[in-house]
Input
Amino acid sequence: MLPGNFASLMIVTRRELGAYFATPLAYVFLVVFLVLSGFATFELGGFYQRNQADLVTFFSYHPWLYLYLVPAISMRIWSEERKSGSIELLLTLPLRLSTTVLAKFLAAWFFIGLALLLTFPLWITVNYLGNPDNGAILAAYLGSWLMAGAFLSIGCCLSAASKNQVVAFVLSVSACFLFVLLGMPQLLQVIDGVLPQKMVDGIAQLSLLTHFDAISRGVLDVRDLLFYLYFIACWLVATAIVIEQKKAE
Amino acid sequence: MIEVENLVRQFGSFTAVDNLSFKVEPGEVLGFLGPNGAGKSTTMKMLTGFLRPTSGYVRVFGVDMWQNPLPAKAMIGYLPEGAPSYGEMTVAGFLDFIASVRGLRGDEKKRAIAVAAEKIALGDVMFQSIETLSKGYRRRVGLAQAILHDPRVLVLDEPTDGLDPNQKHQVRELIRNLAEDKLVIVSTHILEEVSAVCSRAIIIARGKLLVDETPAALQARSDSGRLDDVFRTLTGGV
Output
């Protein structure tokens, strides 16, 4: 008896997650993420100088951290399978392609979630120093994780597009940067005069930054959550299509 | 039984597999021969459900590979070319993963892994990570994962490529033993392999089927009785 879809999903996710910890990659990533997020919060964001009991400075740097760190995680997800040929093994097992695509995404997403959870000393610090709105902080954590998932889904797709991890990394950073850029006021001002207002608004809505803005301040809007989930779903469907297309190579 | 009907695969304007049809019955060991680039691997990839044919069918014991991929794939054990696996995993961890995906649980899973490890003589490397193993051992790991679930069909793409003579001998022994109750398809460009293990041989070149007969009949085609000569005569011109 073959395992059901959910059981298969769990089996593959567990293997993928285990693969992160079998190499030093996981530990390097965790350390780099923690050091950089600490540096951004305290040095760049002036955590103490602001003299406010919140983690806004911490979260506001997350898009910029994810821009480089998430592609570093996602670059190997499919390109390594293709390079080593193990993709042929994986896709001839009795698994649906959708199960495999989702499992690989989930494993990486849980891993990034772990990195986020390990920033808990900051949360303890801010609670020790003052009385922050812990609900807002929780919401911001959730939003940050969702945004990481959005970056990750782009990375998954572009990792499937190349056998070369470095190429996958560069493509992913570029694509992620584009989706951050779309929400920058500087860019919007430039296109404001050229395109109709509705299109400008639409473009701004596609930005990962626009949707994170409110969340980083602790305002959790269902529309922002749905945006991230749709965004992830679209890129994962694209991933499956790219894999199917690239099999012939 | 495996039925391949009018199988075609095109890459752009290039036709890698051109209207290939054949049937394989349980108990047969089919040698799939051809020069490099003849379309052997492409055919293997379609047989196992990795590549979608441009047209034509693959049926595994009556189950269509593209309409009903999961049950069809479940009946097959496949060793892809080069025996790829996950280098960072231990042999035991890797086999456990494959067994789980194949739907084996608990004691049944433990037994299946023990049986495969015993058959392939993997006992002493079970807890080493795969990337530290020699080429021969990696090939054996690939074979072990292919037979774990005791499949009715075994598809082996170049199973002895790059092995030393002793290892080749071992793998062939293994294929012969496995063949008793299974349907085996072995792709190779090593001709000695065909007379050593196969009960039937198919030669393809440029994606087309040239010959489908027993190794003995194939040998009889040449005055010298050597398969090399037959092979060269058949495929040299194309």
